[in-house]
Amino acid sequence: MSLPKLHVAVLMGGWSHERPVSLMSGEGVAKALESKGHKVTRIDMDRDVATRLAEVKPDVVFNALHGVPGEDGTVQGMMDLMGLTYTHSGLATSVIAIDKELTKQALVPHGIPMPGGRVVKSADIHERDPMPRPYVLKPVNEGSSVGVAIIMDESNYGNPIGRDVAGPWQEFSELLAEPYIRGRELTTAVIGGRALLVTELRPKSGFYDFDAKYTDGMTEHVCPADIPDEITQACKDLALRAHQLLGCKGTSRSDFRWDDTQGVEGLFLLETNTQPGMTPLSLVPEQARACGMDYPDLVEAIIAEALKDAEKRKGAK
C-alpha cells in the first residue's frame, strides 16, 4: 500500500540490556522515515513514556524497542489502552514470544522442532549440571543472545559451575537449560506474511553472541546461505508457521541451529523474535535488501502492515 505522509513516533532506547541496539535501530528507522518525507518524533523511552506519547499524538508508533519492557507485552498493553496504532506484534504474542519456554509450549504441539530443556534455578547449577554436557544456559526472556553460556566439558566454568565465575547465573535467578546442538546458525526473516531468505551466521570466533551480532567484522553473514534446497525450504516454512502460530505482525525473525550431519532431522527452531533489530548489521534489513527492498521501503512496509491491521481491527468492532 502507498503510504500518505504520516507523523511517526519512533520509540527506542529504554532500560533493557539491549538499549544500545534499540537506539541504533530507532535512529536508522527515524532517518529512513525522514528520507521518505514523514514527520518523525524520536522518543527515548523513560517512565513517562505514556505522557510523552499523549503529547505527541502520532499517527502511528514505530516500536524500535528490544527486550523488556518494550518487547514483552508491557508497552504493547499501554499503547492498546491509549488507542495507539503501533508496529510489530501485539500484547498476547509479545508475552509468549519473549518467553522461550512459553514459545515452546505454543509451537512444539504443532510440530515445530525445538530443543528440549527445562527452566532451572541458577542456584542449583552450582550443585550439579541440570543435564549432560554440552548444554546451553540462557535467560528465559532476553533477546540478542544476552546472557547465553555454552557449557562444555572443556569450558572454564568449572564442574559444577563455580559461583564466582562470570555468567548469566549471576544476573538471572532462573535460566533455561537446553541441549547444545552442534552445527550451523541459520536465520529467516518474515515480512508481511512472506518468508524471505535464509542467512547463515559464521562468527569469526566463539559463537553468535551479543558482541558477535553487533560488532562490525566479528561475524560473516552468508546471504543467501549455501545450504541444500530442502534446508532452505524447511527454514522458510518453519519461520512462516511460527510467525502465524504466534500471531506475529509486521516482521519477525526466526533463528535455527542445524546439525548438517543429520539432514532436515537436524534442524531446530531456537526462538522467534517479534521485534528484530534494524541496525546497519541487522539481519532483516539485509535479507530485505537481497530481495530488492531497500531500508526505507522496508520501514514503510512495516508501518503499512500496522496500519492495515489497525483498519482490520476497527472494522471488526
From TrEMBL:
<dbReference type="InterPro" id="IPR011095">
    <property type="entry name" value="Dala_Dala_lig_C"/>
</dbReference>
<dbReference type="InterPro" id="IPR005905">
    <property type="entry name" value="D_ala_D_ala"/>
</dbReference>
<keyword id="KW-0067">ATP-binding</keyword>
<comment type="similarity">
    <text>Belongs to the D-alanine--D-alanine ligase family.</text>
</comment>
<comment type="pathway">
    <text>Cell wall biogenesis; peptidoglycan biosynthesis.</text>
</comment>
<keyword id="KW-0436">Ligase</keyword>
<keyword id="KW-0573">Peptidoglycan synthesis</keyword>
<keyword id="KW-0547">Nucleotide-binding</keyword>
<keyword id="KW-0963">Cytoplasm</keyword>
<feature type="domain" description="ATP-grasp">
    <location>
        <begin position="104"/>
        <end position="304"/>
    </location>
</feature>
<dbReference type="Pfam" id="PF01820">
    <property type="entry name" value="Dala_Dala_lig_N"/>
</dbReference>
<dbReference type="Pfam" id="PF07478">
    <property type="entry name" value="Dala_Dala_lig_C"/>
</dbReference>
<dbReference type="InterPro" id="IPR011127">
    <property type="entry name" value="Dala_Dala_lig_N"/>
</dbReference>
<dbReference type="GO" id="GO:0016874">
    <property type="term" value="F:ligase activity"/>
</dbReference>
<dbReference type="InterPro" id="IPR016185">
    <property type="entry name" value="PreATP-grasp_dom_sf"/>
</dbReference>
<keyword id="KW-0133">Cell shape</keyword>
<protein>
    <recommendedName>
        <fullName>D-alanine--D-alanine ligase</fullName>
        <ecNumber>6.3.2.4</ecNumber>
    </recommendedName>
</protein>
<dbReference type="InterPro" id="IPR011761">
    <property type="entry name" value="ATP-grasp"/>
</dbReference>
<comment type="function">
    <text>Cell wall formation.</text>
</comment>
<keyword id="KW-0961">Cell wall biogenesis/degradation</keyword>
<dbReference type="InterPro" id="IPR013815">
    <property type="entry name" value="ATP_grasp_subdomain_1"/>
</dbReference>
<dbReference type="InterPro" id="IPR000291">
    <property type="entry name" value="D-Ala_lig_Van_CS"/>
</dbReference>
